[in-house]
Structure formats: structure tokens, C-alpha cells
Amino acid sequence: MEVWRLIDLGLAEPLIAQTFYEAVAKAVDEGLSTNTIILVQPSSPYVCIGFHQEIEREVNIEYCRSRSLPIIRRSQGGGTVYLDSNQIFYQVIARGESKAIPLSVERLFETFLSVTVYVYRQLGLSAEFKALNDVTVDGKKISGNGAGKFGENTTILVGNVILDLDYDSMAGVLKVTSEKFRDKMAKSMREWVTSLRRELDYIPPVEEVKRLLVEGYEQTLGIKLVKSEATETEKKIWKEEVKPRHLSRDWLYMPELRHEGLIEGRAVKIAGGVKVAEIDYKAKKLIRVRAELVGTRILDVMISGDFFIVPEEALTDLKSSLKGSILDRDEVLSRVRGFYRKSGAQTPGITPEDFTDAIMKLMNLAET
């Protein structure tokens, strides 16, 4: 039986709650710490954006400022979320050779979210796992989850048990085209996202939820969890490396994702036959493509969205593989498939054909 650490950070300020696991991941990857599960609640509200998202397009920045809501970019993919102390986070950090860690991201979600399902069922709800990375109750989402890799050989899975939800804030932090659209979005959230309070008419004690999580991990994964504290090495890594990175403007805004003045779904002529064009493509996740084109040839390309890619840095290789391509579906698909073969990257819920279809939407703009 594998013995893992259990670190309970209790209520922690948002930056620690959201990012301390990265310091633990580095220590685990370097063999300085053993496999670990962290439990933590944010002590105050904040907004968290996905690794590949553009903050100006996704977040209502003025709303966040007016309510003193910090904005934190996480190291995994996915969408923008409002978070507060009414979520209990679980953060799994383990080396790849652990028998509890499946090789594929799809199986990773299915295996570890069976624990989340277990918790909700023990509390009396008819919870189900919904691929790719959700847990639902009667068709309504009741847990959000993400996964990624750190370093050469460490797997990370993060998610939450939702105690209660502030629907107005959830809708308020998102950038939308109109207030009518925001009202519609808030209504949709109430219909399709739920919480323990809403389903049970009360919030179970936090310690009971944590006990069930521990019980679920031990029974489902066949591991033994031993209560522990973060090491001085992990605290030093967070203070000297993780915290400064997440507080930097370059990390939060990622200027390489931006192109000022570009209108969604439009092409802007730059000079001669050169255009900069942008499209959105909705597969199971949003793929946003921005490209510099000369005729139908791709000079440069940027890909963003709320999808997951493991490892995250593989997206750079995908973009490189597409440079110089002609907007011909067979050629684009060949290059995308070549990227998958060479990199071994996983994009759960997104196929090579999805990326190809997204790229090919540029053709309509290239020809205008």
C-alpha cells in the first residue's frame, strides 16, 4: 500500500489556496517530497482564469476591481471561475510511477473524480461522473476539476466540493457583450450548476466533508493518507518562485496572447497581402485562433481558449508546427497529427480534427 501525505491548509488567503500546490509539485518532482493530497479553502473571494485564456476578453476587470477581487491565473487550462470559502479544494500531486495514477488524462479524471462522487453520495446525493471532468447531480454540475503535468514526471489534479454558490458574482466577473446576456448567463448558471446547500437545504460540516474525502481517496485508490505539514523546502519554493511568478504582470496578462484592436471574427489588413484574423471555434471546449496570414498561408498563429493540454507548454509546439502551413484541410490536419505523434501531448475532450476545423475557419477571413 502506498503511503501519501495529507496536508490540510485550512482557510488560506487566495494566492496560497490557489498556488501552494505548485511548490509541493516541484518538491515531489525533484524527489524532495512524497505524493501528497492538499485540502484547503480560500479565506476570501477571488477570480481564477485558465492558463490559455486572455484576461481582457474573459474577465470583467472593472467589476473585480470595484469589489477588490484578486485575479489569479492558474497553471492548468479551463475557464474563468469565481471562487470563495464555500468551496473545499482538493489538490492531488503525485509522481507518475504511482500505481494510483492512470497514464491518460481521461482515466485520471474518471479515477479521481470517483472520490468526489463518493463524497456527494455519502451525503445523500445521486452524484455521477460526467466526462470529461465534471461531477453532476440530476444533470447539474456540482464540481469543477482540472489536471496537468509538472516537470518530467509529476501529475496534478485539482478540483472542488461546492458547499454553496454566489450566482450573481459568478456571472458578474465574466466579460459579456451586454447586461441582458449577463442576466441570461446567470439564469443558466442557476439551472445547470448546483451546490450542497441547494441540494440538501443545509451545508454539511466542513470537517465531515474532509473526512469523506480522505475516506474516499484511501478506499478508491488503495492508499494510506498520513497527516503532515508542508516542509520548509516547499514553503521556500512558494515564497521565492511560485508567489513572484503569479504576482507578475507578465504571468497574469500573458501579453503574447494579445493583439490590440482586433475584432472577434474579423480580419484586419496590415499591409499588402498581410492580414491578422481571429476566430472562435466551439468544440467541447472553446478554441480561439488568431493568425497572421498572407493570402492563405499562416505566417504566425496564436491559440487560446478554455481547453486542457497536457503538458501545458506543448501548445507552443502546436503553434510552431502550424507556421508556414497553407489553409488546406489535409495539410493542416497532417501537421496537427504530426504534433500529437511527436509531442505525446494529451488534449482531453479535444481532437486533432477539432484544432484543424478551428484553423480552417480562418479561410473565410483570408478570402475576404
Report on the architecture of this protein:
With 368 residues, the chain is an alpha+beta fold. The chain has two domains: 2-253, BirA Bifunctional Protein, domain 2 (2-Layer Sandwich); 259-366, Enolase-like, domain 1 (2-Layer Sandwich), CATH 3.30.390. 39% of the residues lie in helices and 28% in strands. The chain is built from 14 helices and 15 strands. It has helices spanning 14-29, 55-58, 61-66, 105-122, 167-172, 179-192, 196-200, 206-221, 232-247, 249-253, 314-322, 329-343, 352-360, 362-366, and strands at residues 2-12, 36-42, 46-49, 71-73, 81-83, 87-95, 127-130, 134-137, 140-150, 154-162, 223-228, 267-271, 274-282, 286-294, 297-305. The strands form three sheets. An eight-stranded mixed sheet has the order 7-8-9-10-6-2-1-11, sandwiched between helices. Strands 12-13-14-15 form a four-stranded antiparallel sheet. Helix 1 links the parallel strand 1 and strand 2. The longest helix is centred in the first third of the chain and has 18 residues, at 105-122.
